[in-house]
Design goal:
Layout lengths: L2 H16 L3 E5 L5 H7 L8 E6 L3 H8 L14 H15 L3 E8 L13 E7 L4 E6 L5 H21 L1
Parallel strand pairs: 1-2, 1-3
Antiparallel strand pairs: 3-4, 4-5
Length: about 160
C-alpha cells in the first residue's frame, strides 16, 4: 500500500466513523488528493467531490470567487489555499474542505516561488494552513509530496 493510500485510508476511516464529509480543491496535485481518497473502498460515504483549480479562470468558475475577493491575494499562498478550502467546503456543503496550491516543478511559478513550494489548507471544525518546501525540482515527486502532506495535515486535524 502506498503512503498516499495509507493516509487516505486513515482519513476515510475517521470520516466514516464520524459521519463527516470532505470536498477537495487542488492545483499542482492535479487530482492526486481526490484520487487517493476515492481509492479507499466506501469513499462515497465521505467524499462529495473535488476540482482542479489550475488557473484564475477555473477558480472563478468552480468556486465562484469574484475578482474583488482576490485583491492582495495571489496563488500559492496560505491565504489563497485557505480561501479555496473554505469555498469548496461551502460550495459542496461538506463538513471539511481541503485545498492545495503550489509549484510542482521543474521550475518555480510566475510569482517567484521555487519548485517544491506548496500551501495547504483545511477548512471546517478545525482550520489550519501549512507551507511545504520540498527543495526538489522533480514534478512527479513534488506532486506526490504535496498530496501526502495535505492528507497528513487533514488526518492530524481530524485527530485534534
Amino acid at each position: 500500500m502506498s503512503i498516499l493510500t495509507t493516509v487516505a485510508f486513515e482519513v476515510g476511516q475517521i470520516l466514516k466513523a464520524r459521519n463527516e464529509t470532505v470536498s477537495v480543491c487542488e492545483s499542482s496535485c492535479a487530482g492526486l488528493i481526490s484520487s487517493s481518497l476515492v481509492a479507499v473502498p466506501g469513499a462515497s460515504a465521505y467524499y462529495v467531490g473535488g476540482c482542479v483549480v489550475y488557473t484564475r479562470i477555473s477558480q472563478k468558475a468552480f468556486l465562484n470567487v469574484e475578482d474583488d475577493e482576490m485583491l492582495n491575494i495571489r496563488a500559492s499562498t496560505e491565504e489563497y489555499a485557505a480561501l479555496n478550502a473554505n469555498r469548496t467546503r461551502i460550495s459542496l456543503g461538506t463538513t471539511w474542505g481541503l485545498s492545495e496550491t503550489g509549484a510542482s516543478g521543474p521550475t518555480g511559478n510566475r510569482y517567484g516561488d521555487d519548485a517544491g513550494h506548496a500551501c495547504l489548507a483545511i477548512s471546517g471544525p478545525v482550520n489550519q494552513v501549512k507551507t511545504l518546501e520540498t527543495g526538489e525540482f522533480d514534478r512527479e515527486s513534488n506532486m506526490t509530496a504535496f498530496a501526502v502532506a495535505a492528507l497528513e495535515l487533514f488526518r492530524d486535524s481530524l485527530r485534534s
